[in-house]
């Protein structure tokens, strides 16, 4: 079949467009890498530091940073370093606004008097970390302030332990065999074997405990929130000072947080 000149031109245009789309993919991937890096470092980074960290061409990084600033994805500080910009909050707010679990969490703990004096957190699992999507800080000096969007290594947190507790050994090894997070305190689990012992204890007692693994003077107690299929979709936890945490208090808190988690699960269609 012989194509007309017009058809040939149209075909060439489609092929060129497809080629341009494929060519744009590396730029998108690099943009996300830069955003992830800037969002997760403790201190703002310069263009040179970003280039070295990601091992990308200098010209590529500078070009992407320029476009990202134009779109308000990042902001350039007066010292030449970069931080996350306001545009990303539109995505975060859009994501959170569509998650019924966040509004249910906020409404529930606004009314539940059992936890009115305690810090409450809601997290989801993201690879090896937990991401905080809901929190209510108490006025207790816990040594740790939680905030929405915060990330912590899952093996050290109460919500992380409960979210990891139903994973198979094979999946846990896939996550942590090659890289286990650096300890946050002297009490943090040092390796996967120690974590697996803690996860077994979590399954046996029915709730999880972070005994000073995130902050030396703080204990967190967690439980699982499930969807209508029975799958764990999030973890909730309450935090208190270690000086308050007698065996009896921890046991009672474990039962109470379990009841709260079940109530949240029911509102999400769980049994």
TrEMBL record:
It comes from the Bacteria. It holds the Pfam family HTH_IclR. Keywords: DNA-binding, Transcription, Transcription regulation. SMART domains: HTH_ICLR. Residues 25-86 form the HTH iclR-type domain. Residues 87-270 form the IclR-ED domain. GO terms for molecular function: DNA binding; DNA-binding transcription factor activity. InterPro entries: GAF-like_dom_sf, HTH_MetabolicPath_Reg, Tscrpt_reg_IclR_C, Tscrpt_reg_IclR_N, WH-like_DNA-bd_sf, WH_DNA-bd_sf. GO terms for biological process: negative regulation of DNA-templated transcription. This is IclR family transcriptional regulator. It comes from Martelella mediterranea.
């Amino acid at each position: 079949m012989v194509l007309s000149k017009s058809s040939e031109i149209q075909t060439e245009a489609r092929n060129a467009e497809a080629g341009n789309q494929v060519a744009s993919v590396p730029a998108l991937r690099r943009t996300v890498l830069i955003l992830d890096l800037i969002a997760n470092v403790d201190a703002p980074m310069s263009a040179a530091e970003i280039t070295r960290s990601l091992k990308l061409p200098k010209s590529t990084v500078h070009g992407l940073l320029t476009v990202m600033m134009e779109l308000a994805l990042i902001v350039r500080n007066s010292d030449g370093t970069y931080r996350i910009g306001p545009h990303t909050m539109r995505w975060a707010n859009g994501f959170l606004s569509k998650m019924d679990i966040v509004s249910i969490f906020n409404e529930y703990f606004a009314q539940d008097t059992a936890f009115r004096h305690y810090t409450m957190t809601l997290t989801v699992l993201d690879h090896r970390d937990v991401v905080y999507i809901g929190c209510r800080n108490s006025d207790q000096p816990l040594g740790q302030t939680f905030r929405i969007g915060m990330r912590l290594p899952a093996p050290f947190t109460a919500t992380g332990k409960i979210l990891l507790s139903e994973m198979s050994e094979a999946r846990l090894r896939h996550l942590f065999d090659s890289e286990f997070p650096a300890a946050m305190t002297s009490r943090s689990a040092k390796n996967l074997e120690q974590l697996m012992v803690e996860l077994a204890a979590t399954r046996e007692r029915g709730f999880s405990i972070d005994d000073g693994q995130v902050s030396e003077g703080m204990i967190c107690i967690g439980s699982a929130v499930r969807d209508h299929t029975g799958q764990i979709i999030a973890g909730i936890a309450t935090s208190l000072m270690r000086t308050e945490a007698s065996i009896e208090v921890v046991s009672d808190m474990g039962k109470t947080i379990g009841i709260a988690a079940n109530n949240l699960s029911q509102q999400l269609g769980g049994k």
